[in-house]
Amino acid sequence: MTAKIFIDGEHGTTGLQIRTRLADRRDIELLSIPEAERRNAAMREDMLNNADISILCLPDEASREAVSMVEGNNKVRIIDTSTAYRIHKDWAYGFAEMDKAQADKVRAARFVANPGCYPTGAIGLIRPLRDAGVLPADYPVSINAVSGYTGGGKQMIAQMEDQSRDDAISANNFLYGLTLKHKHVPEMKIHGQLDRAPLFSPSVGRFPQGMIVQVPLFGDGLKEGTTVESVHAALVAHYAGQNIVSVVPLDESKGLSRIDAEELAGKDTMKLFVFGSDDGAQINLVALLDNLGKGASGAAVQNMELMLSA
């Protein structure tokens, strides 16, 4: 049976990437609003209510508006890529590998909140250590990250690529979120099962797609007896049997002299690394992914697949 999928916001960066991933599918009928009609509220509401799954690629308020349009229609299921519902108790968090039950929660859910790109890397590193009892809930977690500029949407893409603009960005790399109140922090705290908000320092590099997320840890703040090897083993055990998230072997990590943020650009997978001093006093966890892949559009398609398999 052909599933009807509507991408609300298909002409934005995330929506276009989802559409590209679904374009050649024969088991899916893509409902589409012509770009010239994208502000046609009646047509939009009709599409939202006639889809089996509507994927929202919109700002927060527009997503809330879209959800209100289908509240009386129990047949429509929603995947929202904004930050509007990521910590909402009635929405499944769309990180299928987060724990053993999450894929089934997504599969059964009517409402699924797609994770943010930075939180996917951060939670992907933190949650296994929380579940294993290695990382205390009150540990003062710091998260440092760099993303490709496509994560900023159409405006930032234009600012980075068109230097003739009055608001062009000329920097090759820049920090932002300097007030430490980034919109992704709440989901990192809640889904990372942390008692205190992490200190999150994001940055953007002059490359379109790709991302590195780092979580540095001091060994003496972890469970007594924790080593680099036991941290790595906790990650390996958590992701055993997964084909999208992989943990790089320690021997392979030790042979690396650098990690390229663009290595997984165009892919929907994520790699996790564990680095550390010989005595385990310092440990650096690293996630490598595409900010538009596993960090956005790829995750939305993965969640759609799970929902269609119910």
Question: What would your notes on this structure say?
Answer:
- This protein has helices spanning 13-22, 41-50, 60-69, 102-108, 117-131, 153-161, 185-191, 228-238, 250-254, 293-308; strands spanning 3-8, 28-31, 53-56, 77-80, 92-93, 111-113, 142-148, 173-175, 199-205, 211-218, 245-247, 270-276, 282-289.
- It is α/β, with parallel strands linked by helices.
- The protein has 10 helices and 13 strands.
- It has a 7-stranded mixed β-sheet with strand order 8-9-7-10-13-12-11.
- 44% of the residues are buried.
- The chain is globular, with a radius of gyration of 20 Å.
Spatial strand arrangement across the major sheet: 8-9-7-10-13-12-11
Rg of Cα set: 20 Å
Overall SS class: alpha/beta
Order of helices and strands: EHEHEHEEHEHEHEHEEHEHEEH
Give the fraction of residues assigned to helices.
25-40%
Low-confidence stretches: none
Compute the average pLDDT.
96
Q: Which shape, going by the Cα principal axes?
A: globular
User: Span between N and C termini?
Assistant: 13 Å
Number of H/I helices: 10
Major beta sheet, specifics? 7 strands, mixed
Number of DSSP E strands:
13
Quaternary assembly: single chain
Portion in beta strands: 15-25%
